[in-house]
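so my prof wants the structure for this chain in the tokens format not the other one, which i didnt know existed until like an hour ago. anyway here's the sequence
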Amino acid sequence: MWYIGDTMEEKITIIEGPPPVFEAVNDGWALGLNESPRLSVSALTRLRTFNGHELVERCYRAWSAKSPIHLHYRNEMGMEQSAPILAARNVETPDGQVLYCGYISITIRWSMRLIREMMNRMKTI
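here's what i got, hopefully its the right format
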């Protein structure tokens, strides 16, 4: 947790490992995040974790307090970035816990792979 002026901002930080991969998503729970008159993209990332239930609880506490919570990470160039988390879900897998984080943003720097994937999905609609 860190403070900016008089406000407190919650964050979940990726300490080690590769940067998160943001995927375009057309699943119902994530599409529900995009209910606004502005055109934006629903995205999802999957993060391996040892304490997924606690991270989801941190998100719920922040949202209950009407505060934002962000995912902080280093991008492919090593620069710090953040993305607002708008949905979170923990899933138990045979390999351990996976935290699913949902985003809706035009500020996330999309990779060419993600842009091609979104364009292909739009062609099928």
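also thought this was worth mentioning. The chain is about 25% helix and 40% strand.
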